[in-house]
Amino acid sequence: MTIQHLAVFITLLAACSPDDDAGTNAGGGAAGGAGDGVFVPDGCEEEAVLDVYSEGLSRDGDGGLVKVTLSIATPGPPDKGENRWTVRVEDAGGQAIADATVFVRPFMEVHGHTSNPAQFAGDAQGDGSYLVGPFILGMAGRWDITIDVTLPDGGTDAVVFRFCAWG
Q1: Within-domain flag for 29
Q2: How many CB atoms lie within 10 A of CB 100?
Q3: Helix, strand, or coil (residue 147)
Q4: 9, 39, 69, 150: least buried by Cβ within 10 Å?
């Protein structure tokens, strides 16, 4: 390991130490009332921006080319630690896309870091479904999980699911 790699590692370790998993103890929203002592992980205070997990949760692609459905998440809802997802990719007309390239990129905005590795390839199942994982959500808090899709014709699109990993 070079000195630069070691410096980056130590900086990330210090920035995202186990104490950062502490979140806040103020509570709020569905997690608890203000000041009630309920643990709320970093980035999870803004419930309006978080997705509520359910099998079949869908998002249209930012470019309007695809629809991605979170068919199954293990654990469900997604949480700190090892996660596995099955996603289904369809075109704008609702037809399954069996031969796309799919990557999942977890990102923790509040701390400015990705998971390690930064992206995970989906394994095509031949019916428009893709198995992804295991991928690690390394700490409690809000994770923005982007699904990048490259279509057979080279077109690209992406969707983002936002979950709080409670840990």
Answers
A1: no
A2: 23
A3: strand
A4: 9
Strand pairing of 101-108 and 81-91? Answer: unpaired
Name the CA dihedral angle for 132, 134, 139, 144, rounded to a multiple of 10 degrees. Answer: 0
pLDDT at 49 over 60: yes
pLDDT digits (tens, 9 = 90+) for 158-167: 999 999 998 8
The answer as to whether 13 is a domain residue is no
Q: Is 110 inside any structural domain?
A: yes
Q: How many domains does the chain have?
A: 1
Q: Which pair of tokens denotes residue 138? A: 């390394």
Alpha-carbon distance values, 112 to 8, 90, 124 (Å)? 13, 31, 30
- For residue 158, what are the domain limits? 51-165
| Angle in degrees, CA 124, 98, 105, rounded to 5 | 50
114 belongs to a structural domain: yes
Q: What is the pTM of this model?
A: 0.77
Q: In whole angstroms, what is the distance from residue 167 CA to residue 45 CA?
A: 15
Q: 126-156: per-residue pLDDT in tens?
A: 999 999 999 999 999 999 999 999 999 999 9
CATH of the domain at 129: 2.60.40.1080
